[in-house]
TrEMBL record:
InterPro entries: PqiA-like, PqiA-PqiB_transport. Its main location: membrane. GO terms for cellular component: plasma membrane. The chain crosses the membrane at residues 50-69, 97-122, 143-162, 174-193. It comes from the Bacteria. This is Paraquat-inducible protein A. It is found in: Cell inner membrane. It comes from Pseudomonas mucidolens. Keywords: Cell inner membrane, Cell membrane, Membrane, Transmembrane, Transmembrane helix. Pfam families: PqiA.
Length: 214
């Protein structure tokens, strides 16, 4: 089965700044339209992705063990971690807020760790397994990355609501800083990964098609 030529076979490179398809036959260093630097692949993609991902994984431990907020109600205060906050909201009937915080704080980072690790390992092993599905997984990680700070926003809104109704006070604790860093580093990890590496090595079927065409 015939396939269309790749950008590399046509000596083309897409500018990351303006989207122009640039002719790379003369090896230009910058886009002729916007002046942005041209790269056929993201530089040191795997190394930077692993570094950001492992940093996020290390920070994820204190983000879940340290308190993220202190709630004072009727003169008595208590520190809450992410999980204890989820349970507290659930027990007080705010199950919707509990579900949002659980998904954004526990489930989403866990999914991103697993998916990015899978993508990195399979690319480094030059695996041709489910390449189309792995590309979809990467786009899924990009999509859920936009909602990574949702629980921080929810906590801020709850704090504002409590203070507005004069029910008590809510103050942030150091755990929220670690969680914010986890969000930043997982986003940097996803941005550093080059999904074109998934398609770097042709499959046996593609090689057979190329030989048949010639």
């Amino acid at each position: 089965m015939n396939r269309p030529p790749t950008a590399g076979e046509l000596n083309l490179c897409l500018c990351h700044g303006c989207g122009l398809a640039c002719d790379m036959r003369d090896e230009p260093e910058a886009c002729e339209r916007c002046g942005a630097a041209l790269h056929r692949r993201k530089s040191n993609s795997l190394t930077r992705t692993w570094a950001y991902l492992l940093t996020a994984l290390v920070l994820y431990v204190p983000a879940n063990l340290l308190p993220v907020m202190n709630t004072t109600m009727l003169g008595s205060g208590a520190d809450s971690t992410i999980m204890s906050g989820v349970l507290e909201f659930w027990q007080h009937g705010a199950w919707d807020i509990a579900v949002i915080i659980f998904i954004a704080s526990i489930a989403v980072p866990g999914i991103k760790f697993v998916v990015l690790s899978l993508l990195l390992v399979t690319v480094q092993r030059n695996s041709q397994w489910a390449r189309k599905e792995r590309s979809k997984l990467y786009r899924f990680v990009e999509l859920i990355g936009y909602w990574s700070m949702l629980d921080v926003i929810v906590v801020a809104l709850v704090a504002a609501l409590v203070k507005f109704q004069a029910l008590g006070t809510i103050e942030p604790r150091v755990g929220i800083l670690f969680f914010g860093l986890v969000v930043v580093f997982t986003m940097l990890s996803a941005m550093s990964f080059d999904p074109r590496l998934i398609w770097e090595n042709p499959s046996i079927e593609e090689i057979a098609d190329a030989v048949a065409d010639h």
